Amino acid sequence: LMLDRALGSREIRVRYHRGKIELMSISVLHESIKKLIAIFVEAFCMERLLDFIPWGSATQRFSDVAAGEPDESYTIGQTRGERPDLVIEVLSPSTADRDQVAKAKQYARFDVREMWIADPGAKSIEMLVNSEDGFRRATLHRGDDVLRSPPLPGLEIPLADLFLMGTDKFD
After folding, report:
1. Which of 84, 83, 64 lies closest to 18 in space, CA to CA?
2. Rounded CA separation 52/121 (Å)
3. What is the secondary structure of 46-71 as a DSSP string?
4. Can you give the C-alpha Rg of the chain in angstroms?
5. pTM of the model
6. Phi, psi of 17, deg, nearest 5
């Protein structure tokens, strides 16, 4: 109750990790970009009648001591079902380092095949693919680029449209 009063009407996400409680404010811009990417991915999967599991931001338990909470995540096809194949992180100033380094290492270690890192400030999406040495950059999309993903052949996300729809109300 005291925490609710101190934060007022601000929306927060609470995360407990290795003995620490993290409180993160939820940005409308962050949520807008996250949701628009999800709409593109999910509409594509439904249109193509692909088997997929939209995990959303559900906590992914990788072991007794490791868990991840991506902004969006998906299992695509009949690959595994227990872990996502694709995770999507939308950067926020307060979480950018953790999303790009710590979470990427964790997802790679637990065999997530692909990670997208959307940066609303740079209006870009970096696509990382898992290799024997962890994630490596496959592509960096920005400007008028169209994002295409090997696990989803035929998917095309025009970044100019994505970031225009997601940011025009916040500029």
Report:
1. 64
2. 30
3. HHTT--EEE-TT--EE-SSS-EE--S
4. 16
5. 0.79
6. -145, 120
* Closest to 87 measured CA to CA, from 123, 62, 114, 105: 114
If you count DSSP H runs as helices and E runs as strands, how many of each does the chain have, helices first?
Answer: 5, 12
Structure tokens at 102: 């710590």
Residue 133's CB: how many other CB atoms inside 10 A? 7
Per-residue pLDDT tens over the stretch 59-84: 555 555 555 678 898 888 766 557 78
Question: How many whole angstroms separate alpha carbon 99 and alpha carbon 106?
Answer: 10
pLDDT digits (tens, 9 = 90+) for 20-38: 666 555 678 888 899 999 9
Counting every residue written for the chain, the total comes to: 171
Residues 6+ apart with CB under 8 A from 94: 24, 25
Let me know: does 130 contact 113? Beta carbons within 8 Å: yes
